[in-house]
Amino acid sequence: MTYVNIPDTTLLRDVYSRALIETDTTKKEEYKVRSAQLTAQKKQQEDINNLKSDMEEIKNLLKGLINQNGIS
Q1: CA–CA distance, 12 with 3 (Å, rounded to integer)
Q2: How far, in Å, CA of 56 to CA of 53, rounded?
């Protein structure tokens, strides 16, 4: 593989695939941590949205039961 330094950065460019390669391991680890945090936040938001949806469904079922039994 052949790499070319990118001036004023810690990056290398693979001349064949044109991929950027980060050579600063601290930045790599920071990126991994940020990525994991974003993934966790997205999962948490999905869980919240699922709970909201489930609560809405329960609410609608209860309203249907109340209307069906003529309860006011």
Answers
A1: 6
A2: 5
CB of 3 closer than 8 Å to CB of 12: yes
Query: Which contacts qualify for 4-10: CB closer than 8 Å, 24 or more apart?
Result: none
Q: Is-above-0.85 flag for pTM?
A: no
25-53 average pLDDT score: 96
For the chain, which residues make up each domain, given as ranges?
3-69
Nearest to 17 by CA among 6, 4, 8, 29: 4
Dist. CA 7–CA 1, nearest whole Å: 19
Q: Which single residue is written with the structure tokens 């039994």?
A: 69
21 has pLDDT over 80 = yes
Spatial CB neighbours of 2, under 8 Å, sequence gap ≥ 6:
14, 15, 16
Residue 3: other Cβ atoms inside 10 A: 14
